[in-house]
Design brief:
heterodimer, A: about 140 residues, mainly alpha, 3 helical TM bundles of succinate and fumarate reductases, 4 helices, B: about 130 residues, 5 helices, about 0% strand, elongated
Chain lengths: ~140, ~130
């Protein structure tokens, strides 16, 4: 305790490791984690706009970094992150109005949102021509 | 009789409600509603814009309706992310000096992101 710098003597709520994991808990943690990730993503979007305004050389430098393997991983992660946070955020608005607290439904929707975020991001990347597979190859 | 239930020591320390809680709560949700409308638009539009390379990008950003909506999206996004990360910092960082430094840094980054985006979009839309 002395090393952590925490001086408040009042009891603390149990730490995350004592809980058995469940879908809504994962969903809550992911909502916060994707929110922080989207912060970085918005910085990238502003960077893309700034590169475009700076001219063709700056833009192609941005494109080069963005289309590299690490760049693609980050951008795909951002696509998943924004889709999840948007769906989860919409559910938070519904929760704010007092609906959707049935545990089974909440868990089902939570799992569905994680799946939809990943599938949706894949669909967006294929449509944008960014994925290694093309629409033609998929018969689309 | 005191009108407040706060202790004299509590008052001297000056902690407690900053009287901004409701404003924060509502702003987080108002920007969320805006972003639920704007995010699908910007994702779909960006697909077309990034496919066209540099020429496609500047043509898309330079269109007045796009320029206006991009800045509204970035504005709502920056406000939403600033007050969202503020809560994350307040939750996890207990040391006052680190907390205040990060809260100020959060504001600086947010302002910088919005100004950079605004300069870029306005340059392409007005030129």
């Amino acid at each position: 305790m002395a090393q952590s710098g925490w001086t408040d003597k009042r009891p603390m709520s149990p730490h995350v490791q004592v809980w058995r994991w469940h879908t809504t808990m994962l969903g809550s943690i992911l909502h916060r984690a994707t929110g922080v990730a989207n912060y970085l993503g918005l910085i990238l979007l502003a960077g893309w706009l700034f590169a475009a305004a700076s001219g063709p050389e700056a833009y192609s430098a941005f494109e080069r970094v963005a289309s590299s393997i690490p760049g693609s991983v980050v951008l795909f992660g951002f696509t998943v992150s924004i889709l999840y946070h948007a769906m989860s955020g919409a559910r938070h608005l519904v929760w704010d109005m007092g609906h959707g607290f049935n545990p089974k439904l909440a868990s089902l929707l939570g799992g569905l949102m994680i799946l939809l975020a990943a599938v949706g991001a894949g669909a967006i990347w294929i449509a944008a021509g960014l994925a290694p597979v093309s629409l033609e190859a998929m018969g689309g | 009789m005191s009108e407040s239930i706060r202790t004299p020591l509590g008052k001297v320390r000056g902690l407690g409600s900053a009287k901004k809680g409701v404003e924060h709560f509502i702003a987080q949700r108002a920007t969320a509603v805006a972003l639920l409308i704007l995010t699908p638009w910007i994702l779909i539009s960006l697909i077309g814009a990034v496919r066209g390379g540099y020429d496609g990008a500047i043509a898309w950003i330079g269109e007045p309706i796009n320029a206006a909506l991009i800045l509204v999206t970035i504005g709502a996004g920056v406000h939403h992310m600033r007050i969202g990360l503020q809560v994350v910092i307040e939750d996890y960082i207990s040391k006052t000096s680190s907390k205040l430094s990060l809260l100020i840094l959060n504001t600086f980054i947010s302002v910088l992101v919005f100004v950079a985006a605004a300069v870029a979009v306005l340059k392409l839309a007005i030129a």
